[in-house]
Amino acid sequence: MRNKVADGKIIDLLNGFADAVASGGIVVEGNLAGVATQTHAVGSRLPCDMEGVFDLPVTDTVGTGIAIGDPIRVTLATGALSNTAYNAGTVHFFGYALEAVAANETATINVLKVMSHHVE
After folding, report:
1. What is the pLDDT of residue 117?
2. CA atoms of 70 and 13, how far apart (whole Å)
3. Residue 43 pLDDT more than 80?
């Protein structure tokens, strides 16, 4: 196909946060969130993985714990991952938990990051 420019698994995103994002951290631009493939200085536009399985810190903000297969969402302003309820302007779908998180805890777990048109 002549008009395909990329497979979309890795795209460049702008680090608009106040601090640098280390390789493996979450970068958010607009409604898109990806995993940094290298350290992103403030204001830099660099490659991010948009799908795959990543070891990431996730927080149970609901108080019920997170089970394998539960949706994980990203807070757009901070890049924090949790089970916080979807909110069109602030919290979007990121992927699925592949490990559990105890109630009211933060744990580094495997997360299946999916690039989807998931609407909650």
Report:
1. 56
2. 26
3. yes
- Average pLDDT across the chain, whole number: 93
Q: What is the 3-state secondary structure of the chain?
A: CCCCCCCCCEEEEECCCCCCECCCCEEEECCEEEEECCCECCCCEEEEECCEEEEEEEECCCCCCECCCCEEEEECCCCCEECCCCECCCEEEEEEECCCECCCCEEEEEEEECCCCCCC
Residue 74 CB neighbours (<10 A): 25
pLDDT greater than 90 at residue 116 = no
Radius of gyration of the chain (CA): 14
Largest CA distance in the chain: 50
pTM listed for this prediction: 0.91
At 9, list the tokens: 């698994």
Question: Which pLDDT belongs to residue 89?
Answer: 85
100: left (phi over 0), alpha (psi -120 to 50) or beta: beta
